[in-house]
Design a protein that fits this description.
16 helices; 7-stranded mixed sheet; binds succinic acid; globular; 6-stranded mixed sheet; alpha/beta
């Protein structure tokens, strides 16, 4: 017998098995060998240094699982449409198993010391650093953002693990002087319990660690539903969590697409779940909020934004242009904190518009793995249709195209939209009321501070807002009056693990990150000690 044999294109080394032993291979072993061979074959597509980070199964109670129905979710690279692989279409049954596993794991995990959880989170952080190149590449492969941004996201994602490792050991209580004789009031913080986590595709890794880090630090256990477009980053994180020493059942991952309604409903309504953390669109946030109401669960929501970016007449225009580029075109405009409406004072409008268009002309759009590419595709052709609709709507109402203004090709499957700058966008344009989520900078002129504050606040959402001015009085006035959760004054980037990230109005509830983020995963308990005789 030859030293090796093939299954599909893969080769499994068999030299250690004699012919007699081969004949005796049991069905489960054969299944396992076949699976290994096919997995080796499939992981090659990703080109990672550590292919074992790629998992094609869900993760429940410390085990990699397939769905009972055998259905699959196919995941494609949005830049090339190449099939990357598939993950199982899990449903109600597996969701319940995941919640049960998280409930069983909760008592032991919640009673570990804060120092123990700190150490595990620090190991998790270090593993994310050690696998930086692989994790960055994985993000680029499934999301499409350029490799430098993919790696940047991995650093951002890992920073949440580091931050929450440090926060785990600083969950302090309080002593409140008593109003009653012979007694003392003590306040302690306790983990809320099982947490359901819903994450989006625009940050396949960072939106998980921002929630998971806080949940683990607080002593909660988790059931995560990653987006169907980018499940592999979440599964790689589960694998690193396992290597870091996170016990079975503390992290569970339910991959789903078609069954999302029943899975989501269960994750929101199951009585064992005590908290929900969601990042995604405002309509979906409202749906989940309604479901969570049946059992009054604690909820954090980071939903859509429609960020204003204001350039006053006293701004440093070159700095404002650079900031607008970062703020607007990061992730090809697919972030919730992207500038969506750019208001520029009439006296600096022409200068700002021409400088912005000139910089956008230097972008190189393409496959994020290729050298020199600065901007990748949109996640799918539906996303491209929305950007096209916004551009066509604005043009039909009088906007001018300074650069871009159309998809890269005429193909209906195209996912690349040319980075675009539109000027003279009227207040009636759709861009003013809907988040574009694409590479479209929409410029509108204004005359006075009062007028632009009204325009900026004329939105049902309020996540981030930015402005440029060198007048210290105006900086205070505008920062205080913008109806948003986060203000960038003379900067286009606010995101860091150390800040309280979140919005007002229909942009959400609660804060993630910073010293405030862990509170979302904790209950406050009062203990009154009476009869002290003193
Ligand atoms: C988001 O787009 O939801 C998050 C953006 C960020 O954290 O910077």
């Amino acid at each position: 017998m030859a030293g090796s044999w093939t299954l599909g294109h893969a080769r499994i080394q068999m030299q250690h098995l004699s012919p007699i032993k081969l004949l005796r291979i049991s069905r489960p072993t054969l299944y396992h060998l076949r699976r290994m061979a096919s997995t080796q074959n499939q992981t090659a597509v990703f080109g990672l240094k550590d292919p074992s980070l790629i998992k094609f199964q869900g993760y429940i109670d410390g085990k990699w699982v397939d769905g009972s129905n055998g259905e699959k979710i196919v995941v494609r690279n949005p830049a090339t449409q190449q099939e990357l692989g598939s993950v199982p279409e899990l449903g109600l049954e597996e969701t319940r198993q995941a919640i049960e596993a998280a409930s069983r794991a909760f008592p032991a995990w919640s009673r570990t010391t804060a120092k123990h959880r700190h150490d595990i989170l620090m190991r998790f952080y270090q593993l994310m650093q050690e696998h930086h190149d692989d994790l960055g590449r994985l993000i680029t492969l499934e999301n499409g953002k350029p490799l430098a941004e993919g790696k940047g996201e991995n650093s951002y994602a890992a920073s949440f693990m580091e931050w929450y490792a440090e926060e785990a050991v600083r969950v302090y209580g309080e002593h409140i002087p008593s109003a009653l004789p012979n007694s003392r009031n003590i306040v302690i913080k306790q983990p809320v319990g099982v947490v359901s986590i819903f994450t989006p595709w625009n940050f396949p890794s960072a939106m998980i660690t921002r929630k998971l880090g806080a949940a683990l630090a607080a002593g909660c256990t988790t059931v995560i539903k990653p987006p169907p477009e980018t499940p592999f980053s979440s599964l790689a994180l589960a694998e690193l969590g396992r290597r870091a020493g996170v016990p079975d059942g503390v992290i569970n991952i339910v991959t789903t697409q078609k069954n999302v309604l029943e899975v989501g409903k269960e994750m929101c309504e199951n009585v064992s779940v005590r908290k929900i953390s969601f990042t995604g669109s405002t309509p979906v946030a409202k749906l989940l909020y309604g479901m969570a109401a049946s059992t009054l669960k604690k909820m954090s929501i980071e939903a859509g934004g429609n960020a204003p970016f204001i350039v006053f007449d006293d701004a440093n225009i070159d700095e404002a242009v650079d900031a607008a580029i970062l703020c607007k075109f990061r992730g090809s405009g697919q972030t919730c904190v992207c500038a969506n409406r750019i208001f520029v004072h009439s006296s600096v409008y022409a200068d700002f518009a021409s400088k912005l268009a000139a910089k956008v002309a230097l972008f190189k759009v393409g496959n994020g793995l290729e050298d020199g590419v600065t901007h990748g595709p949109l996640i799918h052709s539906r996303a491209l249709s929305k950007v096209t609709r916004h551009v066509e709507d604005a043009i039909s109402k009088g906007a001018q195209v300074l650069i871009g203004g159309r998809p890269l090709t005429d193909s209906p499957d195209d996912t690349f939209f040319l980075p675009t700058v539109l000027s003279d966008v009227p207040s009636t344009a759709l861009i003013n009321t809907e988040e574009t989520f694409g590479p479209l900078a929409a410029l509108t002129k204004f005359e006075t501070e009062e007028e632009v504050i009204q325009m900026a606040n004329n939105a049902s959402v309020g996540l981030a807002g930015y402005f440029f001015s060198r007048d210290v009085g105006r900086v205070w006035r505008v920062a205080e009056r913008l109806e948003v959760g986060m203000v960038g004054a003379n900067t286009g980037i606010v995101s860091q693990a150390v800040i309280p990230f979140g919005g007002v109005k229909e942009s959400g509830l609660g804060r993630e990150g910073g010293p405030h983020g862990i509170d979302e995963y904790l209950n406050t308990k009062l203990i009154v000690f009476g009869g002290l005789g003193a």
